[in-house]
Amino acid sequence: QLRRCKPLHWPSLPAQRKYMRSPLIPEMATQEVQLNETLAHLKTESETLKTKLEEERAKLHDVELHQVAEKVEALGQFVMKTRRTLKGHGNKVLCMDWCKDKRRIVSSSQDGKVIVWDAFTTNKEHAVTMPCTWVMACAYAPSGCAVACGGLDNKCSVYPLSLDKNENLAAKKKSVAMHTNYLSACSFTNSDMQILTSSGDGTCALWDVESGQLLQSFHGHAADVLCLDLAPSETGNTFVSGGCDKKANVWDMRSGQCIQSFETHESDINSVRYYPSGDAFASGSDDATCRLYDLRADREVAIYSKESIIFGVSSVDFSLSGRLLFGGYNDYTINVWDVLKGTRVSILFGHENRVSTLRVSPDGTAFCTGSWDHTLRIWA
Amino acid sequence: MNMSTTNNIAQARKLVEQLRIEAGIERIKVIILVIYFVSKAAADLMSYCEQHARSDPLLVGVPTSENPFKDKKPCIIL
């Protein structure tokens, strides 16, 4: 286990003390003033040394991932195009998620509709109308038998998917999470039994689906939390969240503690996604950059940006090996980045409005994007 | 002059001197540690990519016949 750099232990200077309430002899009064001045001077000097040390730490930008990766072979040309277009939403698509079966997709929209699609055939299998507009979050259950969604209703609700396509899904709806502001993201943990949520109320929370009970809450963001991602199961019970406070926080699910925090973005973090090994995560922000943070080095190790890219990133995801990072942008494009070298390898056009959501399929054969142009596209 | 106040100043001076030395050593330690951690972390990321590259369909590309999203080309009737 690599140890993080511990902050220096700063012994404290002796406190100023008054030796006499009222000086009995005039010389002692002058000396007391002098002593206090000297102590104050020494305190200032120690503060200056502390600051200098922090500055030296901050200067250590020179070791970055792309330098270490210079010896890695460059990637060739990529040909990726839209293979399917899913049409059916009446308004902006805000979120989507893949089913573990690698062919079904759930998507949610500003018009309050949640649709389950078969991405191979583009057929709609289920549709639910939520009681609110702006359904900002949706997720597929690991079993494939339910979907969760929510948004401006401040809740996360679970809908069991019926085999009977005529059955009214809304009738079996289960209200699970209750926040005091909009639901921005949700994800099942590794079973259908628990859901993790993030909200505009600045918190994340873990819920028991069956009882609706709050199991753990996560406090630490200073503003709306916009996104979350669970660590790959092999790496244990942690998740990462990103917020309007420009921070990405890593949390321990059992204790509710924030175990690591990263603040290098210059604006809201819209999307966070773990690297497949679980040792790092990527983020996408309104500051038009994607960044990679390594959890053991405890710092940002790469920035994916170009002067020509000035629009915010809404959503990011990795290819199966972690070599490629896909980013959906507010300028309607998808930029594909070489994670190790830090260069852009491809730019994809097709959507006619902002790309709002992006996920790679569970077996890595394709990725899906959702857009404000009301459609979803499958790329391969 | 009070003995303990003299001692206090001497103690404080010693502390600052100690801090100066420690700051010098710590600075070097921090530089070495950070470089070690980042290069080790970077090496691990690279190694993971390399190990899994061959099984990454979007990276290496899969033949049309194996990717359900890529449509098979229609036959040309001569």
UniProtKB/TrEMBL annotation, chain A:
Gene3D superfamilies, alphabetized: YVTN repeat-like/Quinoprotein amine dehydrogenase
A Pfam family hit: WD40_Gbeta
Domain of life: Eukaryota
Keywords of this entry: Repeat, Transducer, WD repeat
Record has RNA-binding as a keyword: no
Subunit composition and interactions: May interact with RGS9; this interaction stabilizes both proteins and increases RGS9 GTPase-activating protein (GAP) activity, hence accelerating the deactivation of D(2) dopamine receptor-mediated signaling.
Protein name (database record): Guanine nucleotide binding protein (G protein), beta 5a
Organism listed in the record: Poecilia reticulata
TrEMBL record, chain B:
Boundaries of every G protein gamma domain copy: 5-78
Membrane topology: Lipid-anchor
GO biological process, one term: G protein-coupled receptor signaling pathway
Keyword annotations: Cell membrane, Lipoprotein, Membrane, Methylation, Prenylation, Transducer
Gene Ontology cellular-component annotations: heterotrimeric G-protein complex
Family: Belongs to the G protein gamma family.
Single annotated GO MF: G-protein beta-subunit binding
Subcellular location(s) per record: Cell membrane
Transmembrane in keyword set: no
Keyword Membrane assigned: yes
Name the UniProt record assigns to this protein: Guanine nucleotide binding protein (G protein), gamma 7
One Pfam family recorded for the sequence: G-gamma
